[in-house]
From TrEMBL:
InterPro entries referenced in this protein's UniProt entry, alphabetically: DUF6076 (IPR045722)
Protein name per UniProt: DUF6076 domain-containing protein
Phylogenetic lineage: Bacteria, Bacillati, Bacillota, Clostridia, Lachnospirales
Originating species: Hominifimenecus microfluidus
Superkingdom of source: Bacteria
One Pfam family named in its UniProt record: DUF6076
Length: 368
C-alpha cells in the first residue's frame, strides 16, 4: 500500500523517513525553501495527473490517459529527486513502482475495488489482489494535489516561521512553547480560519524498529499521513516540542533548522554567487570577525591603545625621548594591524612584542 511514502517514525529528537534518520523538523523546514519556479514545474505535472485522478474517481475508462499520466508522474518524481525534503525519498524504488502501477489494468482494477468497497462487497481475502490498483490511486492523489497543497503550506506556515525566527530571546523548547501559546491562544480552534494547523486523517501506532546505523531496536511512535503537507505540519510542531525550529539564513535567505539554543545566523549551504565556493556560515564568520576587528573594544586594539597611553605618559614625564616614542608608536600600530590579519601572530608573539620594554628595544635598533 506504499505507506512509507508518507510515514514518519518519531524517537526522541529525530525522525526516520524512508530509512533515513533526520533531526525532527528537517522536512518541515526544507519544505519552506521550495521555490516558486519549482512549484510551477510541479503544477504542470499535477494538471496532467489530475486528469487521470478525476477519471479514476468517476469510474470511467482512463486507458487513453496512461502514457501521458505515467510520463507526468515520472517527471514529477525527477523534480522531487532534486528538491528537499522530497529528495530524501527512495527515488529508484518509487520510480519502479510508478512504472509498474501506471497501467490501464491497474485503473480497471481500481474501479472494481472502489465499487466493491462502496457496496461493502469486498471480501477481506481479495484485498491483496488490488494492491497495485490502490497504489496507483495513492500516487495520483498525492502527486495530483502536491503543488497546490505545498503552496498553501508555505503561505500559512511562513508567517509562523517568521515569528519563530524572530524569537531570539529563547530558542528552546520552553521559549517556542511560549511563542506558540501567544500565536495560538488556549481558546484557538482549528475550525476558525487556521485549518492549516490541522493534521487530520493521520494514524498513530507504536512499534519497535531498528534505526538506520544501529543494532538495537527502539520503541518509536509511527505516524501515517494522507498528504505530504500533513506530514510537514506534524514534523514542524513535533520539532518545536524539542527545541528545533526554522531559521532564515541572513546571507542566502533560505530556511535552515536549528537544533539548539545558539543564535546561529547562517546556514551551511553554499553562498550564492561566491566565487570561492564558501558556505554562508564561513562568510558569516568572516563578516563577524571583520565587525569585531572594527570595534573599538577589540582585545587586540585594547593592547595597542594601552601601549600608546603608556608611551605618551612616559614622554610627558620626560623619561622617554619624543623621537624614539614616535618610532615605538609606529611599530605598535604595525603589530596591531598584523595581529588583526594574522590569527597565529595574534595568539603567539603579539602581546609579548607589545610590551613597553620590547617595543623600546626594537625601536632603538631601528634608529641606529
Amino acid at each position: 500500500m506504499n505507506q512509507e511514502l508518507m510515514t514518519l517514525d518519531f524517537w526522541q529528537d529525530t525522525i526516520i523517513y524512508e530509512d533515513k534518520a533526520l533531526p525532527i523538523g528537517t522536512l518541515a523546514c526544507d519544505a519552506l525553501n521550495v521555490s516558486a519556479d519549482t512549484l510551477a514545474k510541479m503544477n504542470e505535472q499535477c494538471q496532467k495527473i489530475n486528469l487521470l485522478l478525476g477519471m479514476l474517481n468517476a469510474g470511467q475508462d482512463a486507458s487513453a490517459l496512461f502514457p501521458m499520466a505515467r510520463e507526468a508522474a515520472l517527471t514529477m518524481l525527477e523534480i522531487l529527486s532534486k528538491t528537499p525534503p522530497f529528495s530524501y525519498m527512495d527515488i529508484p524504488k518509487h520510480r519502479e513502482r510508478i512504472e509498474k502501477v501506471f497501467t490501464a489494468d491497474s485503473a480497471q482494477k481500481y474501479v472494481e475495488f472502489a465499487t466493491k468497497a462502496a457496496t461493502n462487497s469486498l471480501p477481506f481475502e481479495e484485498v491483496p489482489k488490488y494492491a497495485d490498483a490502490v497504489m496507483l490511486q495513492r500516487y495520483t492523489a498525492v502527486f495530483g494535489h502536491l503543488a497546490y497543497s505545498l503552496r498553501e503550506y508555505q503561505t500559512a506556515v511562513l508567517d509562523f516561521a517568521e515569528k519563530s525566527d524572530s524569537n531570539e530571546a529563547d530558542r528552546t523548547a520552553e521559549g517556542f512553547a511560549k511563542m506558540f501559546g501567544s500565536y495560538f491562544p488556549p481558546e484557538f480552534s482549528i475550525t476558525e480560519g487556521n485549518a492549516w494547523m490541522s493534521v487530520a486523517n493521520n494514524s498513530i501506532q507504536y512499534v519497535t524498529t531498528v534505526r538506520p546505523g544501529e543494532d538495537v531496536a527502539k520503541l518509536v511512535k509511527r505516524m501515517h499521513y494522507v498528504s505530504f503537507v500533513g506530514m510537514f505540519r506534524s514534523d514542524l510542531f513535533e520539532g518545536l516540542c524539542v527545541g528545533h525550529a526554522p531559521k532564515k539564513c541572513r546571507i542566502c535567505g533560505k530556511w535552515f533548522l536549528t537544533t539548539n539554543a545558539r543564535h546561529t545566523k547562517y546556514c551551511g549551504g553554499y553562498a550564492p554567487g561566491d566565487k570561492l565556493h564558501r558556505t554562508c556560515r564561513q562568510i558569516g564568520n568572516l563578516k563577524g570577525r571583520e565587525q569585531r576587528e572594527l570595534a573599538d573594544d577589540h582585545p587586540l586594539k585594547q593592547i595597542y591603545e594601552k601601549r600608546l597611553n603608556t608611551i605618551n605618559r612616559y614622554v610627558k614625564r620626560g623619561t622617554l625621548d619624543a623621537d624614539l616614542a614616535e618610532v615605538m608608536k609606529k611599530l605598535a600600530k604595525d603589530k596591531m594591524l598584523r595581529a588583526l590579519s594574522n590569527v597565529a601572530y595574534a595568539k603567539g608573539d603579539y602581546e609579548k612584542e607589545m610590551e613597553q620594554a620590547a617595543l623600546k628595544k626594537e625601536a632603538k635598533l631601528r634608529t641606529k
